[in-house]
Amino acid sequence: MADIFTRAAEAAHEANRVLCLALGDSSQQKWKDAPQWQKDSAIVGVRLINNNPETKEHPCFRPYSELPEGQRLKDEMFGIVVRSVLGISLEVSNG
Asked: Which residues contact 28 (CB under 8 A, 6 or more apart)?
C-alpha cells in the first residue's frame, strides 16, 4: 500500500491533469501511466509542502508573478490537494 505522501502526490497529479484538460492541455498522462521522474517530482513536492519550507523554487525558475496563469492555477491546485490529503491547514497563498 502506498504511503500518505505517494497518495497525496497521486491525488494532486490527477487534479492537475484534469485542470490541464480544462485549459486545453491534454499532454498530462494519468498517474498510472506517468513516467517515474514525474511521480518522483510530485512526491518531492508533497514532502516540501509537508515540511513547510521557507523558500520555494518553481521548476520554471521564474518569479511566481511572472508564471502563466495556467501554471499558477496548477501550483495552487497541487498545494490545496496535498494539504487536504495530509490534513494540513489550507492557507491560500498569494504567490
From this structure: 13, 16, 17, 20, 21, 34
Q: Per-residue pLDDT tens for 59-89? A: 556 777 888 888 888 888 898 999 999 988 7
Sorted by where each begins, the domain ranges of the chain are 4-22+36-86
**How many CB atoms within 10 Å of residue 5?**
19
What's the rounded Cα separation, in Å, for the pair 43 and 13?
Answer: 10
Decide if pLDDT at 35 tops 70: yes
- pLDDT for 71: 83
> 5 near 47, Cβ under 8 Å?
yes
| Contact call for residues 77 and 19 (beta carbons, < 8 A) | yes
**End-to-end CA gap in the chain:** 34
- For the whole model, what pTM was predicted? 0.75
